[in-house]
Amino acid sequence: MGSSLSLFLIPRDSAAAAPPPPENTGLGDLPESCVASVMVYLNPSEICSLSMLNRAFRAASSADFVWESKLPLNYGSLIDKVFGGVDDFSNNLCKRDIYARLCRPSYFDSGTKKVWLDKSTGRVCLSISANGLSITGIDDRRYWNRIETDESRFQSIAYLQQIWWFEVGGEVDFPFPAGSYSIFYRLQVGRASRRFGRRVCNSEHVHGWDKKPVQFQLSTSDGQQATTQCYMKEPGKWKYHHVGDFTVTGSAANMKVKFSMTQIDCTHTKGGLCVDSVLICPSEFTERLKRF
């Protein structure tokens, strides 16, 4: 009865004095600074996906400090090496646009090398064309030919017809960001061509690769070394052959890396090999490349 009586003691206008219920809120009401602080911990692909959610997320995804965290710590040195200067490259560009520009392959050293950032990780990848390698006998048409092809990143390859002393090497002096890197030769046994619209492999000159394995070596300016070897197999397929790994512990100076592949047993000739390029990429990509 007491509870029933209390209902009559409440003033009639008390309901009108009560605060209105809060309006519906959503992700669009989050402060841009808060959203951007979270995006720092996401990868670039996730940031781009969230930028399409609403205006707040789109604005937060453009924050310089978000993309600064995705760029290599020494990206200024990288730009100096490839583009000749930060000022010429990044004039009026925000960090997001700098990141996007560095993800596009950029040629340097007279077009024999190109570098890019992996879009999903921001890690540096570098490729050296056959024209940028030192190839024994390359100027003698009896042994080697340069062939144009759309199967190469550089639109041309070096094709070996026959030789006794096989040696293909090179070096790169580059400001690699700190991390672990792997080196691969991209090679193919046999020469591919098109016949009636179909890709076919010409094995006319293929010989000698089953006699002795090819030896791969690398060395760095700080004393790291690696050696591997393998037989050349599977005609008609481009394969990434792992040379070895090296580690960069700082970003203060360039790292000079030398690499080579040799088969110098002069008891037999060898031929029918296509040399496309050398790839230097983060070591976490190794398993992915070995499947190709």
Structure explained in plain terms:
The chain is an alpha+beta fold and 292 residues long. It contains ten helices and 15 strands. The strands form three sheets. Strands 1, 2, 3, 5, 6, 8, 13 and 15 form an eight-stranded antiparallel β-sheet that branches. It has a five-stranded antiparallel β-sheet with strand order 4-7-14-11-12, with no helix packed on it. A two-stranded antiparallel ribbon has the order 9-10. It starts with a helix and ends with a helix.
Q: What is the end-to-end distance? A: 84 Å
Shape: elongated
For the report, how would you describe the main beta sheet?
A: 8 strands, antiparallel
Elements, N to C (H/E): HHHHHHHHHEEEEEEEEEEEEEEEH
**How much of the polypeptide forms β-strand, as a percent range?**
25-35%
Radius of gyration: 29 Å
Query: What's the β-strand tally?
Result: 15
The structure class reads alpha+beta
Low-pLDDT segments: 1-10
Overall pLDDT confidence = 87
**How many DSSP H or I helices?**
10
Helix content: 10-25%
